[in-house]
Predict the structure.
Amino acid sequence: MTNRMNIPNKLFAKALVAFAIVLGATFSSFSSFAQEEEKGINYSAQLDTNVIVIGDQINLLLSIEQPKSLRVEFPVFMDSIGSGVEIIKQSPQDTIPLENGNIKVNKNFLITSFDDGVHKMNPFEFKIHDENLMNIIRTDTMLLGVKTFDIDTSKANFDIVMPIHTPIAFAEIAPWVFGGLIVAALIVLLILYMRKRKKNQPLFVKAKPAEPAHIIALRKLDEIKKQKLWETGKVKQFHSDLTDTIRYYLDERFQLSTQESTTDEILKAVNAVEVNSDWHAKLKDILERADLAKFAKFTPLQDENELSLKFAYKIIETTIVEEAPAKEEKESIAVEETKKEEK
């Protein structure tokens, strides 16, 4: 019984709202124009339309034509205009010069409403500042009719449709996969770096040259010996070339990193390698004499220069890694296979 009485009531309410909207649209235009003839001011408030469907968005444009000498304050709104009309966005004031010397200032509001019915927008006030006087001018009241959707109560309500579960695509997990791999690689590199640094070894081992390191180093020593730079007064250059050659050989032979190391750091690094103590003493003698010649303005005697060169040869000859020629190795394998066949 109650439900039957409610249906006419709802229809009556909808009819009443529709009548109010039509009535508002009849007696309220889309625009409100006014004029202050004494001061040469024209102002207006315009709507795109005065009837919308609930949730629709329309523009409200406030405009005023005025002399440049006057200062006009537009009405200020926060997030709504009156009751039931919400502001979505408002633009800054736009000033346009006119041919008659005046200016036209526009300000636009994007508005909407989520309440059905007729909403009243009170007159919009502009404050006119002229010298020490302030005057207020107002537009007419404006009405905005908001229609809602018709609901068919004869049909049953439908449940909310649940989200569709789709399989996870590779593109969704790719950033996490690649990010994890990069983090793992960085952690591995950091561990390797800390271990190599502790042993004073380079992180990445250089590719072995086509020639053994001792061959290249001995050839360089032969060139230094042939130049005899100490006899022409180039003592610093001689010791610099000599220590560069020794550093290169140590790096290649023992997988060290001595190019930017001091004498103490080099000696500490070779201490970690199984070397002959006599060999170590000769290296220390070469490096310390070179430091004196390069940094302390000390000029070693000719015999001392020749001794450094001799020690360099001795270091390389003492630490050479003998490698069996590939040809001899193949021949020995072939002989062994022949002996097995004869047996």
Observations:
- The chain has a mean pLDDT of 81.
- The chain has eight helices and twelve strands.
- Residues 170-198 form the longest helix (29 residues).
- The radius of gyration is 48 Å.
